[in-house]
Amino acid sequence: MAQSMILDYHKKIINNKSHISTTFNEIKKNIVKINNSHTFITTTTNGIDIKEYEKSINNNLDNLLFAVPYTLKDNITTKDILTTGGSKILQNYIPPFNATLYDLINKKQAILIGKTNLDEFGLGDSGTYSAFGDVTNFYDNRCITGGSSSGSVNAIAANTCFFSIGTDTGDSSRRPSTYLGVVGFKPSYGLISRYGVLPYAPSLDTVGIIANYVTDIAIVADAIIKFDEKDYTSQNIKFDGFLKSLKPIEKIRFSVIKDIDKYLEKNAAASYFKSIELIKKHGHIINEVEIDWALVRIIPTIYKVISCVEAKSCYANLTGITFGKNFDDISGFEKIITNNRTKGFGNQFKRRLIIGGFSTYKENYHDVYKLASKFRTLIIQQVNKLLANNDAFILPGTSSTAPLISDVKNGKFKTNEADDIVQLSNFASTPSISIPTEFIGKLPYGINISTHINDDQKLLNIALTLEEIFKFHKEVKNND
Predict the structure, then answer these.
(1) Which of 145, 149, 125, 239 is nearest to 192 (CA)?
(2) Phi-psi region of 181 (alpha: psi -120 to 50; beta: other; left: phi over 0)
(3) Is-catalytic flag, 148?
(4) Which of 28, 45, 203, 268 is deepest in the core (most CB within 10 A)?
C-alpha cells in the first residue's frame, strides 16, 4: 500500500480528536530543533486555535487536508502575514491580498505553520542567497539544501509539516528535493495559478508541491490545480482527480541519456545506475538515447539570459518609492532608487538584474536575447526526442549529493551538465518530479522523471510505481 502522511494523519484525527494537538506539539518542537538552520522566515503557530479544529472534525470527514500542517515559500503572498521574497527590500511587506493557491488551501482548512526561506526572489540555486541567512541541510548543517525552494524542502525533511508549496523556475523545487530526500513535483506550466506569487521569469515559473510521498502530492494537487481567470497563463484542463486516479503502472517505457554518467560524481553515478537496473528488474523498459551535449552545455546561458531579462522587467517596481522599503530620508528620485536598491538587493539578485539589462541593450538584443530565444526552441526539441516513443525520461536528480556550503561559496563546487539538464522541463513546460532512491552515506539522493505536457496524472502514477520499487525509508535525524 502506498505511503501517505496525510492519509495516515486524517485517519488518526477522525479516530482521536486529540491527535491534532499531539501532532502540533511535535511540530513546534521540530521547528525549535532546526531554529539555527534558517528554514523559516516567519512562523505562524502561535495564532493557531487547535480546539476549534478539534470541534470541526465531524464536519470534515471527507476533507483530507483538514487541519493538515503545511508551509509556504515566502514568495507567495499571504494577507496580513509578512511576505519578504527573501529580500531586505520587502522585509516589512504585509500583503493586502492572498495568492489564489493560498485561498484554495484555506478552503480546505489546512493549517499554515510558517513561511519558508528562499534564495532572494527565487534567483538562486543553493539556498545561500537569502537576506535572512543560509538555509543549512537538515541531514548535515555543513551542506546546502539547494534552491531556491530551500526552506520548503528543509521543512519537509525536518518533519515540521506534511506538505510545502514552493516554486520551480529552473528546477528550484526538484533539485533541493533530491538533496533532502523528499518528493518535489513541478506540474505542467499553467496548471497551478501564479496569481499572488512573486515572479521570477513568467514564461518559466511554475508552482511546485513538496512532500514526503507521491500520494501526498496527489492530494494537494487535487486542491490547487484549478483554472484561475486572474492568471493569464492559467490552463483550463479537467482531471478526473489525482488521488482517485493514482495507481501503479505495470510496464513503463523510459528513456535515459547516453553518457550522462561522466558528469556524475562517482557515488552518484553508482546510485543512478543501481536505480536504473532496479527499474529494469521490475519489468520496465529502458531505452538509451543520444542527445546534443553541445546544446546541453549552453542551457545555463540560455536560462540566465531569458530568466534575467524577465526578472528585470518584473522587479522594475522595486524602487522603495512606490513599492518596497525606503531605507533613508534623502532627496532626488534617482538617488533614492539607487540607495534603496543598493541596500535592499543582495549581490546575486543584482548580478542577475545586470545580466537582464545587458541582454536587452539595443546593441545586444538580437545577438543575445533573441538568439537565446531561438536556442530555447532547440532545447525543447531535445525534450521531444527523449519522449519520442517513450512514456517518460529519467535523469539523475543532481550530479552529486548536497555539496558543502563552503565549497559552493568559494567556487570549489559548481553545477555541471547533469544538474543543468533538469531544466529541460521548465523550457518545455512539461511536468517533472524528483523522488528519493537511497542514502549515499548520510545524505539522500534520487532521480528525476519527466513526461509529456499535461500528462501530470501519468507522471504521478509513474512516480508512485517507482516509489514502491525503491522503498526509500526516510532517516529521521536527532537534532537534540
Answers:
(1) 239
(2) left
(3) yes
(4) 268
Neighbours of 26 (CB within 10 A): 13
φ, ψ (nearest 5 deg) of residue 406: -65, -40
- Cβ atoms of 428 and 452 closer than 8 Å: no
From CA 218, how far away is CA 185, in angstroms rounded?
A: 10
Could you tell me which of 289, 465, 304, 432 has the C-alpha nearest to residue 375?
304
The per-residue DSSP string of 361-393 comes to STTTIIIIIIHHHHHHHHHHHHHHHHHTT-SEE
Separation of alpha carbons 318 and 333, rounded Å: 13
Strand partners of residue 391: none
> Can 172 be counted among the known catalytic residues?
yes
Q: How far apart are alpha carbons 257 and 387 in whole angstroms?
A: 11
**Catalytic residue (choose from 172, 188, 307, 359):** 172
Give yes or no for a cis peptide into 148 (omega within 30° of 0).
Answer: yes
3-state SS assignment for residue 76? strand
Q: Regarding beta strands 285-289 and 253-257, do their DSSP bridges make them parallel or antiparallel, or are they unpaired? A: parallel
Tell me: the pLDDT tens digits for 344-384? 999 999 999 999 999 999 999 999 999 999 999 999 999 99
- Whether the predicted model's global pTM rises above the 0.90 cut: yes
**Catalytic annotation, pick one of 148, 173, 275, 400:** 148
pLDDT tens for 32-86 read 999 999 999 999 999 899 999 999 999 999 999 999 999 999 999 999 999 999 9
Given the residues 17, 73, 88, 186, select the one marked as catalytic: 73
C-alpha cell at 287: 531505452
DSSP assignment string, 155-185: HHHTTS-SEEEEEESSSTTHHHHHHHT-EEE
Distance in angstroms (rounded) separating the CA atoms of residues 148 and 70 = 18
Residue 211's DSSP bridge partners are: 163, 183
In whole angstroms, give the CA distance from residue 338 to residue 252.
55
CA–CA distances in Å: residue 28 to residues 25, 158, 333:
5, 11, 46
What's the farthest any 2 CA atoms get from each other in the chain? 71
The Cα–Cα gap between 248 and 467 comes to 9
The amino acid occupying position 381 is: Q
Q: Cell 528513456 appears where?
A: 255
CA atoms within 13 A on the CB side of 178: 31
Q: Which residues pair with 443 in a beta bridge?
A: 440
Neighbour order of strands in the sheet with 69-73: 40-43, 111-116, 69-73, 163-168, 206-211, 183-186, 432-440, 443-451, 392-396, 253-257, 285-289
The DSSP H or E segment spanning 287 is: strand 285-289
Lookup: cell for 450:
519527466
Closest by CA to 75, choosing from 45, 42, 33, 34, is 42
What mean pLDDT is reported for the chain? 96
